[in-house]
Amino acid sequence: MDRPEIRILGVGTALPGPLIDNAELVRRFGLPEVWEQWIDTFVGTSSRHFALDLESGEVRYSLADLGEQAARRALDAAGVEASEVDLMVMGSATPDKLMPSTVTVVADRLGVDDISTYQLLSGCTGAIQALDVACQMLTTGRHRTALVLGGDTCAKHLDPSIDLAELSLNMQVNAVLFGDAAGAAVLSTRDAPEAPVLRRVFTRLVGRGREPGQTVDWYGWADRHSDREPVTEDFKAVEESAPVMAAEALQELLDDLDWKRTDLDYVLPPQLSGHMTRRVIEALDVPGAEVVSCVAEIGNTANAIPFIQLERAIPEMAMGDRAAGVSVEASKWIKAGYAVEMPDVSTGGV
Amino acid sequence: MSDTLTGEQPGATETPPLEQLREIWRDVLKLDDVGPDDELPYLGGQSMQIIQLAVRVERTLGVKLPLQVLVEATTLRGVAEAAVELRRPGAAR
Question: What confidence category does residue A346 fall into, taking pLDDT thresholds of 50, 70 and 90?
Fold first, then answer.
């Protein structure tokens, strides 16, 4: 059986609240002012959106709120009714609750029912895992139109009432790296000759025997007073491994598709921080491709990233253009990638 | 004034901020000891150590040292001179 082509019919994203710049972030968290200079120099991120209001601490948007908004925009962009969706897959490291899953809450709000839903708990490669699961299920022919979502919010981890300056350096750095967002894409095997084709998606765990580069803990009734830090990160390991893993992921993608580096028109790199993304781009070594990066502007938006990048790249892509996206997850070390090609309809397809 | 601060005053050996800087550097970089003119380890790329030094300097001396000063510092005396310069009235912060 021929593998059906999977098309990206539409992409949508949602960013909560106003942009918070480094000066405001540092002031609001009561960090020494020199942090502002440090974020500019060593993180390379100038602003981000948050799901909570930093002044009041009030959570203004849940992940379901952002997911719903992104999903509606993706459906609108695709010209697809929610009732046509027969599969939903979501990737997130920060679902609103463990149960019910955020994907089912979003489905309910969209009025979607009687379909298959899956939620994958993962860091920065979760959205690509969601794309992969959706693609594989569409390939079976059991499903025709998938709504794939990804997103994260820091709402559970940012407490403006806590004196951040008194927490560990690890917690302080984590507070300045991330931004909140959600994204969604409508994938379909239906006939849509002008829509971009999702050529490949892959994810690969490469963490056997290796300590996690990032951990995010969760608490229940029995350990609610635990003094374990909710989030830890081995920044040095991430800095060392991310460029190498990203380059490996890109190579694997190119080899699998029999594409050359020079065939790439767009590259959608990992978005760990502005500084790290610059290093990763050097390692990817695709000088001829346009880089689609938003981390300097909105921070590391984790599982929303591929959607934000695709939403920016796809309208720019000309017939026959090729794009490759890469992601690296430091938790237990996962690399992932995806490739998109704009059909050349003048020659009857790609 | 600046002579006192950088420990150059005749008779004064290690007065603030040199002694304070010495303590900060010893703590953050886990150095056994470091004299005013000893060569400091190069911190290019050591962003976590740089922010720890910068925060301690800002808290202790009340100056926001340009981070490049910390990255390129070769001796504590050099850092102290930069800090003194920044603490002068009217100095650009």
Answer: confident
Instruction: Compute CA A239 distance to the chain's CA centroid, rounded to the nearest angstrom.
Output: 19
Bridge pairing between strands A197-205 and A334-341: antiparallel
Query: What's the mean pLDDT in B43-67?
Result: 88
Q: What is the pTM of this model?
A: 0.91
Strand-pair partners of A151 = A182
Q: Is pLDDT larger for residue A159 or for residue A240?
A: A240
Q: Please state the rounded mean pLDDT for residues A202-228.
A: 93
Residues of chain B with C-beta less than 8 angstroms from the C-beta of A173: 48, 51
In a 13 Å sphere around the CA of A240, the CA atoms on its Cβ side amount to 6
Does the structure show a pLDDT above 80 at A207? yes
Alpha helix (H) ranges present in chain A?
22-28, 34-38, 63-78, 102-110, 126-139, 169-177, 235-257, 274-284, 295-298, 305-313
Token code pair at residue A3: 């593998």
Q: With an 8 Å Cβ cutoff, is B29 touching chain A?
A: no
Max distance between CA atoms of chain B, in angstroms, equals 38
Q: How many whole angstroms separate alpha carbon B61 and alpha carbon B93?
A: 13
How far apart, in whole angstroms, are the C-alpha atoms of residue A171 and residue A157?
9
Q: Quote ipTM for the complex.
A: 0.75
Among B47, B48, B58, the residue with its CB nearest the CB of A34 is B58
B86 touches A: beta carbon within 8 Å:
no
For residue A66, give both structure tokens.
């952002």
CA angle A93, A133, A101 (to 5 degrees): 40
Report the distance separating Cα A58 and Cα A232, nearest Å.
24
Q: Tell me which residue of A15, A47, A12 sits closest to A274, measured CA to CA.
A: A47
- Neighbour-count burial for A10-40, b at 16+ CB within 10 Å, e otherwise: bbbbbbbeeebebeebbeebebbebbbbbbb
Position A91 scores a pLDDT of: 98
Strand partners, A59: A52
Using pLDDT thresholds of 50, 70 and 90, give the confidence band for residue B3: very low
Longest CA–CA span in chain A (Å) reads: 64
Q: Which candidate in A31, A34, A36, A279 is best for mutational testing of the B interface (most B CBs within 10 A)?
A: A34
Query: Hunting for tokens 């703590």 — which residue is that?
Result: B27
**Cα separation values, A143 from A107, A136, A307, B47, Å:** 16, 10, 21, 48
CB of B27 within 8 Å of any CB in chain A? no
Identity at A228, one-letter amino acid code: R
pLDDT at A3 over 50: yes
Distance CA A75, CA A73 (A): 5
